[in-house]
C-alpha cells in the first residue's frame, strides 16, 4: 500500500470534511441556556461536526485501499456520538432545577436524540460527497467538485427533511383565551385551570399581566398526543423559557372538550410572540401515538432539529 495520500484522495477527503462541517453549521442551533454554554457549546458542536465529517470522509478511501479498519473507526464514531447524546441528556437534567419550568424527561430525551442525529447528518454528507467524487473520476476536477458539492447540499436538504418532526402548530389550533377569576379559581374560556389564586394581589396580577392560550386538536385523534403529559410540559417550558415567569405557570387539560390551556404571568408580555412559540413547539416522539401525525399537512411553524 502506498505510504502517502494521493492528491485526488486528499481532495476528496477535504471536500468531504468541508461539506460535513457545513452540514453541522446549517443544523446548528445555538444554545443560550447559560452564558458559559453559549460560545463553548457552539464550539463543541462545530468541532464534533468536524470529527463526524472526518470519519465519513475517510471511509471510502480507506475501503478502496482495502483498509478494513475504517469500519472499526465508523463503529467507534457511532458509539462516541451515542455518548454525546448521553452527556447532553445529563447536562439538561442537571439544569432542570434552574429553569422557570421543567422540560420533563420526554422533552429531554427528544432533544438529546436530535443532538446526536445532527452528527450523523455530517457523517453521511461527507461520505456521499467523497463517494460522488470517486465515481466522477479524475478528469475535469473543478466540474467534479461542483457536482459533488451539489450532491452534498442535496444530501443535507434530504436528511433534514427526513429527520425533521412535526410541531404543535401542525396538528392543533392555538388561540389566546379569555381569563376570568371566581374566588380563588382561574378559568380560561370557561375551563377550570387552578384554585391557587387565594389572595387579592395574585388575582389582580393574573388578570392584569397574565396570558392564557387554548390549544385545540385539529382532529379528534390528535387529542392523544396533546393530552400526553410530556407534550404539555414541553409547551409550558418553551413559553416560559422564552418569555420568563413573574409568578404562576399552569398547563391544564379539559377532559370534556379535549383542549389544553397554558396560562402564566410572563416577564415579557408579548401574546403574539408567545402564540408563535407555542405553535413551533415540537411534537415529542413518545407522544406520537398516531402514525398519520407524521404525514399531516404543515399548517404551523417548523420544529427545531
From TrEMBL:
Keywords, in A-Z order: Membrane, Transmembrane, Transmembrane helix
Pfam families: YIEGIA
Signal peptide: none
Listed transmembrane segments: 9-30, 42-64, 119-136, 142-163
Superkingdom of source: Bacteria
Protein name stated in the entry: YIEGIA domain-containing protein
Species the sequence originates in: Lawsonibacter faecis
Amino acid at each position: 500500500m502506498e505510504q502517502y495520500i494521493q492528491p485526488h484522495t486528499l481532495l476528496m477527503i477535504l471536500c468531504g470534511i468541508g461539506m460535513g462541517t457545513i452540514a453541522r453549521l446549517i443544523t446548528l442551533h445555538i444554545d443560550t441556556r447559560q452564558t458559559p454554554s453559549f460560545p463553548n457549546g457552539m464550539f463543541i458542536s462545530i468541532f464534533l461536526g468536524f470529527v463526524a465529517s472526518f470519519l465519513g470522509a475517510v471511509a471510502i478511501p480507506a475501503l478502496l485501499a482495502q483498509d478494513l479498519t475504517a469500519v472499526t473507526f465508523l463503529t467507534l464514531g457511532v458509539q462516541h456520538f451515542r455518548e454525546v447524546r448521553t452527556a447532553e441528556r445529563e447536562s439538561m437534567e442537571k439544569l432542570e432545577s434552574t429553569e422557570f419550568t421543567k422540560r420533563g424527561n420526554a422533552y429531554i430525551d427528544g432533544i438529546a436524540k436530535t443532538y446526536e442525529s445532527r452528527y450523523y447528518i455530517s457523517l453521511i454528507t461527507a461520505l456521499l460527497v467523497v463517494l460522488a467524487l470517486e465515481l466522477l473520476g479524475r478528469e475535469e476536477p473543478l466540474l467534479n467538485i461542483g457536482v459533488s458539492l451539489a450532491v452534498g447540499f442535496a444530501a443535507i436538504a434530504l436528511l433534514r427533511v427526513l429527520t425533521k418532526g412535526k410541531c404543535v402548530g401542525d396538528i392543533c389550533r392555538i388561540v389566546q383565551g379569555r381569563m376570568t377569576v371566581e374566588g380563588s379559581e382561574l378559568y380560561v374560556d370557561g375551563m377550570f385551570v387552578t384554585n391557587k389564586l387565594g389572595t387579592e394581589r395574585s388575582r389582580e396580577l393574573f388578570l392584569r399581566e397574565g396570558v392564557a392560550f387554548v390549544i385545540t386538536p385539529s382532529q379528534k385523534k390528535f387529542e392523544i398526543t396533546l393530552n400526553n403529559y410530556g407534550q404539555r410540559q414541553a409547551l409550558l417550558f418553551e413559553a416560559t423559557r422564552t418569555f420568563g415567569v413573574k409568578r404562576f405557570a399552569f398547563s391544564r387539560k379539559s377532559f370534556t372538550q379535549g383542549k389544553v390551556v397554558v396560562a402564566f404571568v410572563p416577564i415579557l408580555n408579548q401574546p403574539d410572540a408567545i402564540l408563535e412559540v407555542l405553535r413551533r413547539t415540537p411534537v415529542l416522539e413518545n407522544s406520537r401515538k398516531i402514525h398519520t401525525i407524521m404525514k399531516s399537512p404543515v399548517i404551523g411553524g417548523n420544529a427545531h432539529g
